[in-house]
Amino acid sequence: MPPTNRSGAVSRYGTAAGTGTLAVLMLVGVCGSPLYVGWAEDNTDPNGAGGWFMRLLAWPAWRLSSDEPGQGVLATDLRAILLVILAAALLYLLPASQVARVQGSFSQFFSGWGAYVLAAGLAALVSTLLGPDPSLLAALQSAGTGATYGFLSGWIIGTASLGGRA
């Protein structure tokens, strides 16, 4: 049965969590791709704000093959895989617009943004702990980098969450 709104009419829009998850897949798929990562490294200035941000968007980099023997594609791409899974889970678990006192756009936006910040930090932490040469210091530093990425790019996911119904 297709989703309906309160008046009983069929809704043409997905849920806020669904549109946010689609945005996560697109952001990680495009900006984490080897093509984009290579372009960002070769064509942006890391000392300028725009270049730095374009490089930051490449943080969940994934590869189609592993350069290091003994590591499969899953091990090298664990951060990107965990980011997508955790972001989707948190987008569904943080239904701010349903429990907020004031329902509406702001709660959907901040729920999507916050979910992406948490997902990026957790993905970085867990992937570092499960990766080669795990250490608590490296995991905490990686979580900080992931949370920075999520904070500065999470507005994209928050904006995409506005396109769905609560």
Helices, strands, pairings?
Layout: H1 16-31, H2 34-43, H3 49-56, H4 73-76, H5 78-93, H6 96-99, H7 105-130, H8 136-161
Helix pairs in contact: 1-5, 1-8, 5-7, 7-8
Describe the structure.
- The chain is an all-alpha fold and 166 residues long.
- The chain has one domain.
- It is built from eight helices and no strands.
- It is globular and about 45 Å long.
- It starts with 15 loop residues before the first helix and ends in a 5-residue tail after the last helix.
Poorly predicted parts: none
Shape: globular
As a whole number of angstroms, the C-alpha radius of gyration is 17 Å
**Chain-averaged pLDDT:** 84
Based on secondary structure, the structural category is mainly alpha
**Helical content (DSSP H or I, runs of 4+):** 55-70%
Task: Measure the end-to-end span.
Answer: 18 Å
- Count of individual domains: 1
Indicate the proportion of strand residues.
under 5%
The beta-strand count equals: 0
Number of helices: 8
Report on the biggest sheet.
none
Order of helices and strands: HHHHHHHH
